Amino acid sequence: SIADYAATIQMAETINPFIASTKLAYRQAVADRKALYYEAPNSIKKLASPIGSYVRAKFGKDSSNYLELNGLILKIRGTKLKTQTNPDAKTHSMAQQSYGSLLFHFENALAGLQAMGDAYKPGNQQIQLNALQELKNLATEKNNSVATNFATLIPKQNERNEIYDTLSMKTQRIKDFVKSQYGVNSSEYKLVKSLKVKQILIS
User: Fold this and answer.
1) What whole-number distance in Å separates Cα of residue 193 and Cα of residue 20?
2) Model pTM score
3) Which residues make Cβ contacts (< 8 Å) with residue 184, sequence separation at least 6?
4) With helix as H, strand as E and coil as C, how does the chain read?
5) Mean pLDDT of the chain
6) How far apart are CA 103 and CA 198, in angstroms?
7) Are the C-beta atoms of residues 200 and 16 closer than 8 Å to each other?
8) How many angstroms from the chain centroid is the CA of residue 32?
9) In terms of C-beta density within 10 A (0-12 exposed, 13-18 middle, 19 or more buried), how is residue 128 classed?
10) Which candidate, 141, 150, 105, 148, places its Cα nearest to that of 32?
11) Is the pLDDT of residue 17 over 70?
12) Rounded CA gap, 9 and 174, in Å?
């Protein structure tokens, strides 16, 4: 019926802007996390060097404190963060694993620094224990934010796919009905025979 077909079109028109805004939120969360872990001046990767330099100066390059910490720093620097260009399950999962590994190494490094007690008292405020603890908490929040936005987006994308599949099916059935009712050469069929439903991918 016309009412049923119009209702399906309305469902598609309603869900499209929601997915666009949700995808934007997801990509912003991804960008914010990347900056915190890798790009910002006080990112985890960029703070690894001054942390290591302080411990090396304090305890010596052959000390157990420095050697243990340096091993974690090398893991932090060597962790390859996966680039997320599209919010699909595979790239999201790979990125979550890479960021999770980097955070795990950073947490272990922080635990080692905390175990040093009063011996670890750098003048650089960015690498003091309270600042590093805040950085760890914020990094955890960024991971959770990406995961939450992804969990919101994917079901809605699947729902939109179903809506467009339904709309495409109904369009074809309408065309078939008009063709059978009025004939292939009728003016009525000519009005609808070129109708096609394609899903618009919102970037």
Assistant:
1) 31
2) 0.76
3) none
4) CHHHHHHHHHHHHHHHHHHHHHHHHHHHHHHHHHHHHHHCCCCHHHHHHHHHHHHHHHHCCCCHHHHHHHHHHHHHHHCCCCCCCCCCHHHHHHHHHHHHHHHHHHHHHHHHHHHCHHHCCCCCHHHCHHHHHHHHHHHHHHHHHHHHHHHHHHHHHHHHHHHHHHHHHHHHHHHHHHHHHHCCCCHHHHHHCCCCCCCCCCC
5) 87
6) 42
7) yes
8) 10
9) middle
10) 141
11) yes
12) 14
Spatial neighbors of 34 by CB under 8 A, at least 6 apart, are 81
CA end-to-end distance (rounded Å), the chain: 33
Q: What is the pLDDT of residues 56-99, one digit of tens each?
A: 999 999 999 999 999 999 998 877 777 666 777 788 888 888 89
CA 18 to chain centre: 17
At 35, list the tokens: 């900056």
**Count of other CB atoms within 10 angstroms of residue 72:** 21
The CA-CA-CA angle for residues 148, 150, 156, to 5°, reads 115
Alpha carbon of 192 to those of 9, 13, 23: distances in Å?
16, 21, 34
Relative orientation angle of helices 64-78 and 89-115, to the nearest 10 degrees? 170
